[in-house]
Fold:
Amino acid sequence: MKFMKLGSKSDLFKDKPNSTRYVDCELRQDLVVNVGDVRFYLHKFPLLSKSQRIRQLLREENGEELRLYDFPGGSSAFEICAKFCYGMTVTLNAHNVVAVRCAAEYLEMREDVDRGNLIHKIEVFLNSSIFQSWKDSILCLQSAKTLLPWSEELNIVSRCVDSIASKISLDPRAVHWSYTHRKITDQGPRLRDHRAPVDWWVEDAAELDVDHFEMVIVAAEDVDGEDVISGLKAYAERWLPKSAEELVSEEYLARTKSIARRLLKLAASRGCASCGFLLTLLKIVVLIGEDGMKEELLTAISLQLDRASVRDLLIPSRSPCCSAYDLDIVLDLLKRFMERYVGSRDSEHGPPPQIVNILDGFLAEVASDGSLPLSIFLEFAEAVLGLNRASHDGLYSAVDVYLKAHPALTKAEKKRLCGIVDVKKLSTGVCALAAQNERLPLRLIVQVLFFEQVKAAEVAAAAAVSGSGEELLRAKSLSGAKIEEGRKETERVAESYTATQLKGLLLAHKGDYFVATERASQSSERSVDSLGQDSRLRRIFDRLWGRKTGKKGSERCGSPVSSFASVIPGRGRLPRPPLKPGRHSIS
Structure:
């Protein structure tokens, strides 16, 4: 911190009871000056030599006692001015220089009164030191808040703002002064010997009053929009509440609403209202119950929802509520976002694909909330399900998280929950996980196993085709017909089994399933025509579900799921594959 010392004489000011200050010297005090609650016993001559205001007041009142009303800076600022008049040593710094400058202006301590007077010396100190320093400019502007309107009339506020804004606009490589930056990176706290980050200024600027902060942002015209948003986020984090417990009074609530409005207006005026920042404000608005501003934010956010992050969308719900996060607001945002594509040119292509990943991630986060009802989860999941999606991997992850967080779900509830997942749109890796997931209903596992076999058959069929493109298309067509036929039959058969019977079959033939998958993917010597007559799908399912004949090349049943049909209750006896000892428990 920069400072300036004035004067060389010892400090002779002493205290007396009842808020009295006096100069301890042999000469009798002949002037009493009242500043606020403090009485100063001084000498006329030193003050008359420096202050035009004291001269005028003594002429008007013709007495030995003066009262200085509404004195800027109070008794402490007056005492510094009085010591300067006596030639005593005083120290000026960023904390007191604004108050002393305003006090000197009140006392009219100008150059035409005495050469080298206090106003001139303070102005030199401000221009040469305070406004050249980053932190001193911040401190100076903070102290100016309590000295209005004097600090504004003397252009101290505007000069501090210009000083701060000019430094913010500099290239970070030119920053060589001290600044506050507590952000933690992956490598730990930032080191001061490295180049300053682009947002080096935000934490110091966030300490300013909202009026002064707004003035600084408006004056910093050359700062990029992203850097402005960093500053707005830091200010919101510093001054806006994070929970309802922080709203301790009506005054604080009114101040919070004012700051939120000012920040939104500021972001809009600079054209840098990012989705993340708007969602930060939305969380505050939901907390304080500002419905008018909430509607404005919802409209603005819905225009760029695809740029949001999962963390931004986690909006805490207001109590009383049945869940930790407000899904209704996100659902409202999604509906508004989708309305843009209805009847527009973009309706043919649908919404951008990244919105699916964002909402799947959000659904997986809120699914871990143990108090989230299934009906609310399904309502949101079905809305997300309506998006144009190529994969259900994210949706499966959300369902799995919900099953883990809600172990008490009934079989019917699990069936409803897992019904939103389309196993045909699961990737190979997710299918492998799902096939071994004990939390899933057994019928869903059957579907996963079936479609994994189908995918393996398609791979083998494509590898077997070595002729023309027409043969490849014919192979795919035949395979597709078999897939659809097998899918319908598998679902019908799976429904006819009890959970206990299904689990017994799965445990018995799980090894055969993986063997069949590998063999099907390695076989490449079959021709295209053989797909129509002796389908690989049939051979795979004979190995997975069928009866072992003990003969190589023995005749198989005629349809891909004929072995299933042979064990349907009412048509035959359910096979009882041998299980290892200790594996009979089905739970």
